[in-house]
Amino acid sequence: MSTWLVTGGAGYIGSHVVQAFIDQGITPVVVDDLSSGHAEFVPEGIPFVQASLLEGARIEAALREHGATGVVHLAGFKYAGVSVERPLHTYTQNVTGTVNLLEAMAAAGTTNIVFSSSAAVYGTPDTDLVTETTATAPESPYGESKLIGEWLLADQARATASSGAPLRHTSLRYFNVVGSGSPRLYDSSPHNLFPLVLDALVAGRTPRINGTDYPTPDGTCVRDYVHVADLAVSHVAAARALEQGTSLEPVYNLGSGDGVSVREIMQAMAQVTGIDFTPEEAPRRPGDPARIVASGERAARDLDWQMRHTLTDMVGTAWQARQASS
């Protein structure tokens, strides 16, 4: 029976990946330093190692103890804006941490890894629909660190290709992850739009739209939003494929294909929560592109990627989890 170690498994996305493994009868092991994760997100009976990826010996020990088939690597410092102010911290967590993880995997003989990358590797793409062949041009230390993570996997795979234990890998890139697969699992990021809007509504504040004069159908930015439970399913599909020896692409976009505007999100928020409001309208923020949307066709072909949830579902499940957490 296979066992997969999930780094960052006590975080918002990681906890949903853990649940997706459980739902498919695969045993997960959670590794998390709880710097942004929550111990209560780890299901009862699931092994939990509270450790940082900077503690390589402890990671290797966990891989050996549980006979890990592979790793889903989600742990990292994920705040793109803050990474500009804290580049060294970002690189230490995301690059040094990934190097340590790959060293621990090599020592323990663990040969499969699914890497949680980011659409931040694209920066501000000059195309209406981002594909895996769109040029990478990250604009923050966070985006750069994720791209370096992809390079590390590719380099280690080449280095071990002729050995008895070649590294098998794929990287998943995605934009805005929202919603909840369970009322007990919520997004606690201080930087993401959904929790910011819901927190404002709960506190009686009026949410704000930054920029209403973009060249989009309603004048507000269009972004790619995907439901966290849909995302989790494809992480497990990637893990299964690697374990079975199926050939995968080095990178996949988990994209919606069409995107949602900020104004549409505000309208859905008012409808779902029952809190009627007219968002404040502020000027554009510098550096915000009018539209960033990715194609998910390649992932749909190989990784059971589907948009199973509507915008109403995304807002509704996020609202349920927000209410349950307060």
UniProtKB/TrEMBL annotation:
The keyword Protein transport does not apply. Keywords: Carbohydrate metabolism, Isomerase, NAD. It catalyses: UDP-alpha-D-glucose = UDP-alpha-D-galactose. Its cofactor is NAD(+). One of its GO terms (molecular function) is UDP-glucose 4-epimerase activity. GO terms for biological process: galactose catabolic process via UDP-galactose, Leloir pathway. Pathway: Carbohydrate metabolism; galactose metabolism. Its EC number is 5.1.3.2. Residues 4-255 form the NAD-dependent epimerase/dehydratase domain. Belongs to the NAD(P)-dependent epimerase/dehydratase family. This is UDP-glucose 4-epimerase. It comes from Actinotalea soli. The lineage of its organism: Bacteria, Bacillati, Actinomycetota, Actinomycetes, Micrococcales.
